[in-house]
Write a structure and sequence with these properties.
The chain is mainly alpha-helical and 494 residues long. The protein is 71% helix and 0% strand. The longest helix has 34 residues.
Length: 494
């Protein structure tokens, strides 16, 4: 009966989310409803809810999660102070005379913005307002232009510093600790934000390379889709003068934030504070910081953070009730029974998350699905860093897959009427395939995600090799050579 309730809880939650109810209240409300049903039939102990208070207090006192609003604030300041406009204008002039140059510029600017602002919505809207008209005016195919802009904006989900990776690291830390304790490892290796940032860096750059390669293929075989841009000579003369403030300063901020984490100088929270202060100083140097801009960024940060953490608290109720109904054991047994072992279990997890990405938001998926699939997968021996990178790359596609891909809505809201919704949807299809190709490559070569954390931090989750039978010490080896006994001396007879 408890397993039936666990399955009903998951199905009802998915149905309620698809109907559009508020996520945080849906997660908590549906879970409380099934907890009450489980208690009535004797399958759920309400005493388990006593664990919510420590969980909520842990979230409020978690120093790692403080990095989330700080990174959001950094992105808000940089986005509102015109970093995207400067980058797009400068990179467009730099690569514009090359066939496909505007496409290259959008991809590179998307990567820089991903490593500095990390805001998908603001990035796609800004590039849609600035780059899309220029690309259409230059004769670009609307489908190619739309796809490049939408895909480049989603790089903010996988290239660190990413708020998605921060939450993934926090969830995987708890999941990995529970799984290792269940396996008898009383001192498990912790999963840190720095580890996941380092693990996601090379796969993120891999996606950038795939996007650039696709634009190059279009320029080589279909030159009419991405012609070169004519740049006036006077603009070329001023190019390098504008290149320094437009590109060097953002790259310096990125190096300060990511470099401090990867070098082990600062934690993710400390580096986020460096980024926030650096963004404010950058806006001051560019004479673009006003009281209104600062207030808008602060208010936007508060709203975004409140929504995210409300979802996190609601997801905590769901996880508690789902475990209390035996759902975690049900998923563990189901994945362990698959004929393909860990490979099949991971494939099922990736397939479910990819399918949910068509209908649900990224944060909703990780808060609900990672606590469900995480423990069984880690018990099967899957590296948590590798798993976190695969999940991040998988959920990146949720921003591009219709009918609820957010970048599709954002671009549609700013695109001219000449660009149809069908053209936008058709334009992102090749980039969804490229993201899946990147996912397959990282799956086939796990070292792309695990090598850098191991090289920088020495973090390794590989199981220790079992000793050979000849190497196993015997009890006699442990005790040492036997001590000779003295002869027994009996007293003489009387």
């Amino acid at each position: 009966m408890a397993e039936i309730l666990a399955i009903g809880l998951f199905a009802s939650l998915m149905a309620a989310l698809l109907l559009g109810f508020p996520v945080a209240f849906t997660l908590a409300g549906v879970s409380l409803l099934f907890a009450g049903l489980g208690h009535l039939v004797g399958q759920f102990d309400l005493v388990l809810f006593l664990g919510l208070a420590p969980r909520y207090f842990g979230v409020m006192t978690n120093e790692t999660l403080v990095a989330v609003p700080l990174f959001i604030f950094m992105g808000m300041i940089l986005e509102r102070s015109g970093i995207a406009e400067d980058l797009l204008t400068t990179m467009g002039r730099l690569f514009g005379p090359v066939r496909g140059g505007l496409g290259f510029s959008v991809v590179l600017v998307g990567a820089v913005l991903a490593a500095s602002t990390g805001v998908v919505g603001a990035t796609v809207v800004t590039m849609g307002l600035i780059a899309l008209p220029s690309m259409l005016k230059a004769g670009y195919d609307p489908r190619l232009a739309s796809g490049v802009i939408c895909a480049s904006a989603t790089l903010a989900q996988i290239i660190p510093p990413s708020t998605l990776l921060i939450f993934l690291a926090d969830i995987l830390q708890g999941v990995n600790q529970a799984a290792q304790l269940q396996k008898g490892n009383l001192a498990p290796t912790p999963v840190s934000v720095g580890d996941l940032f380092a693990g996601a860096l090379l796969p993120g750059l891999l996606l950038v390379g795939l996007y650039l390669a696709w634009v190059a293929i279009q320029a080589l075989f279909f030159p009419a889709r991405c012609p070169a841009l004519r740049v006036p000579p006077e603009e070329r003369r001023d190019l390098f003068r504008s290149l320094v403030p437009a590109l060097i300063l953002p790259l310096g901020l990125i190096l300060a934030v990511l470099g401090s984490i990867l070098a082990g100088i600062a934690t993710a929270t400390e580096s986020a504070s460096i980024g926030a202060v650096g963004a404010v100083l950058w806006a001051i140097l560019r004479s673009r910081l006003t009281l209104a801009l600062f207030w808008e960024a602060t208010l936007g940060t508060a709203r975004t953070s409140a929504v995210i953490f409300a979802i996190l608290l609601g997801a905590s109720v769901f996880s508690l009730v789902f475990r209390g109904l035996g759902g975690e054991a049900l998923v563990t047994d189901a994945l362990a029974a698959l004929p393909g072992g860990a490979t099949a279990a991971l494939f099922v997890c990736m397939l479910v998350m990819f399918t949910l990405g068509f209908f649900l938001d990224t944060l909703e998926i990780i808060f609900v699905m990672v606590p469900i699939f995480g423990p069984p997968l880690l018990l099967l021996g899957i590296d948590p860093i590798w798993l976190g990178v695969l999940i991040g790359m998988n959920l990146q596609t949720s921003f591009l897959t219709p009918p609820f891909g957010f970048t599709l809505f954002y671009l549609r809201s700013v695109a001219p009427p000449t660009v149809s919704t069908g053209a936008i949807w058709a334009g992102v299809a090749p980039f969804v395939a490229l993201q899946l190709l990147g996912l397959v490559l990282v799956w086939a070569a796990p070292r792309t995600a695990t090598w850098l954390p191991e090289a920088i931090f020495g973090t390794s989750f590989a199981p220790a090799p079992a000793p050979r039978p000849a190497d196993v010490p015997s009890l006699q080896d442990l005790l040492g050579p036997p001590t000779p006994l003295a002869p027994l001396e009996l007293p003489p007879p009387r």
